[in-house]
Amino acid sequence: MSKLPKVGTTIFTVMSTLAAEHKAINLSQGFPDFDCDPLLKKLVNEAMEQGHNQYAPMPGIMPLREVIAQKISNLYGQTVNPDTEITVTPGGTYAIFTAIATCISPGDEVIIFEPAYDSYIPNVLVNGGTPVLIPLSYPDYHIDWQLVRSRITPRTKMIMLNTPHNPTGSILRETDIEELRKLVTEHNLLVLSDEVYEHLVYEGAQHLSILRYPDLLQKSFVTFSFGKVFHNTGWKMGYCVAPAHLMKEYRKVHQYLCFSVNTPMQYGLSNYLRTPEHYLSLPAFYQEKRDYFLQLMADTKFTPLASSGSYFQLMRYDRISAEGDKEFAERITKEFGVATIPVSAFYEDGKDDHVVRFCFAKKKETLEKAVDRLRKI
Ligand code: GLN
What we know:
The protein is α/β, with parallel strands linked by helices. The protein has 15 helices and 13 strands. The strands form three sheets. Strands 2-8-7-6-5-3-4 form a seven-stranded mixed beta sheet, with helices on both faces.
C-alpha cells in the first residue's frame, strides 16, 4: 500500500547523508552552520525557568501573535487580527501542509510552479488533489502568466507561490501581482504563498508579500518560518496568516495534527521580535554572505544564475562537465568534498538544466574552504 508510490527519500536527506558519509562541506540542505543569536537562546531559557513548559493555546500564545501582527503592520502596512488570523505552527513546511489539507479535496487541481520545493507535490497528492505543474521560464525563473491561464480548468482550486523562491532565488514583481489578482478574481482561486525567506531579499528589492494586498489576502494562506530567518531551523517554528474565515477552517485541521507548538520557544521568540532591528538587519546580513560567496565563486568554472533572494544560489556547471546534475552533485560530494542539491530534484519529471543549488547560509570560513575545493574542479 502506498499513497505516494513515486515518492522516495527527500533530496535534502539524501545529500546531507552523503555529505556526512564523505565528510564533505555541506552546502546542500538549507540551514546555517552558525548558531542563532545568544539573546534568543537566553530568552527561551528564561521562559523555561519561568515555568512556561505546558501546552500553549492551540493557535499560539497571544504575545507572539501580537508581535507578529505588529511586524506585519511595520513591514507590509497591513492590519491582521492576532486573535483570528494568525496561527503559530511547528515550522513552515507544516504550515504549508496544513493549508493544503484544509482546502484540497480529491479532484481539486493545484497550480505548482517548477522547480518546486519538494514537499508541495506530495502534500497535494496525499490529500487527493491533482498537482498542475507549470515550469518557470529558464534561466530567469519567472512566471509565464499566459501559460498559467492556459492550464486553468473548472477544477482549479488553488495556486501555490513561493517568494523569494527556493531553489532559484527569483522574487515576485508588481506585474506578477497584477496578473495574479486578475486570475484569482476571474477564477475564484485560493492562494497559498510560501514566504519563509521573506527577509532575504537583496539589492534593495522589496519583498512583495501577499500580506500587502488586502483583496488577495482575503483568499490566501501565507506561511512563514522563524527557523529560516533567525538561524534555528532545528526549532521547527513558523506561522500561517489567513483571513478569519479561512483560518477558522485551518485551525480545525491544526488542532488535530499537532494541537499546539512549543511553549518556551514561543515566549522567547515573542520577546525577541519586540526589537524590529532583529529582522530589519537580515537583508544586509545575508546579502553580505551572498556577495562574498559570488565573489569567491567567480574564480571557479561555475556560472551563477541571477538571483534576488533566499539563501540559495544556483550555478550552472556546463563549463565543467556534461553529466546529469544528480550524477554531478554526487561526484563532487565524493571527489571534491562539497555537497550541493541537483535542481532536477525540484522537477516531477526530473528536468535537468545542468544546474546545482548552493546554500550560502554559512560562516565565511566555510564558504572559503568550500570554494578552495571547488576551484580544483
Ligand atoms: N528548506 C530546506 C532546503 O530547501 C530543507 C528543509 C528540509 O530538509 N526539509 O534545503
